[in-house]
Design goal:
The protein has helices at residues 15-41, 48-64, 70-93, 107-128, 135-156, 165-189, 198-239. It is mainly alpha-helical. The chain has one domain.
């Protein structure tokens, strides 16, 4: 393997792979921010389906996908470890919130079923499509995650418990950078017959737009809540 080579799309120091590596680091920061905010607020920080899709993707990629760049396997191993902690937080904090009232007794069975179903999805996708690195699969679940974060914000607003603005920014930035990487990288490495790459570019654009909407909602939604908290703090002083 060459560290830098125009003829080798896997060379780690090719400009698009270097950008993608920075994007992966931003994703690690996003995971850290999710974990930190969840502990602070005692509330899970990633939607149930998004978490199940995410952690099973990392498990499938780490176990079943060959990685032509050793660094990628290390990154996915770190992601898997942090996501295991996020899953633990979900199991600890999510029983009374994740499901509708009256269904909390199904929380653990449904979580196990969801994890199993998501793993089967990734594994069968790997065996069926010309996506041996599971990168297209990753962007599909990334878009699902982006939509589900907005749904979780809507559900919790105006408290925004467990939701991290830093995680939102770094997820958006990290995905934008890996989108640039894959926009250059995938056409050089996926050799199955296809008429165009429009679907992947749709994913890149849709994720970016949805992430921007989520950041906007999270940021501007906190302003009224902060103003209300300030008024409540000031009220006793005024009455005194």
């Amino acid at each position: 393997m060459h560290w830098f080579s125009a003829a080798d799309p896997f060379a780690p120091l090719n400009w698009y792979n270097a950008i993608g590596a920075v994007g992966c680091v931003l994703w690690m920061i996003a995971y850290y921010a999710i974990v930190k905010q969840a502990f602070k607020d005692q509330a899970y920080g990633m939607p149930m389906l998004a978490l199940c899709l995410n952690i099973t993707w990392e498990f499938t990629a780490f176990i079943y996908c060959e990685r032509p760049v050793a660094l990628w396997a290390w990154i996915e191993g770190i992601w898997l470890g942090i996501d295991a902690l996020i899953l633990w937080q979900f199991l600890k904090f999510g029983k009374n919130e994740a499901l509708p009232r009256g269904l909390s007794h199904l929380f653990y069975p449904l979580t196990i079923i969801s994890l199993a179903a998501c793993f089967i999805f990734h594994y069968t996708w790997l065996k069926f499509w010309d996506d041996n690195l599971l990168f297209v699969d990753a962007f599909i679940i990334n878009l699902i995650m982006s939509v589900l974060f907005i749904q979780l914000w809507w559900k919790r607003h105006p408290s925004d418990k467990g939701l991290s603005l830093l995680a939102a920014w770094t997820k958006m930035g990290g995905t934008a950078m890996t989108s640039i990487q894959c926009g250059i990288f995938l056409p050089q490495t996926m050799h199955g017959p296809r008429e165009s790459w429009a679907f992947t570019w749709f994913l890149y654009g849709a994720i970016f737009i949805t992430d921007c909407v989520y950041i906007y909602l999270l940021y501007h939604g906190r302003k009224p809540a902060a103003a209300e908290a300030a008024l409540k703090t000031a009220a006793p002083l005024t009455s005194a």
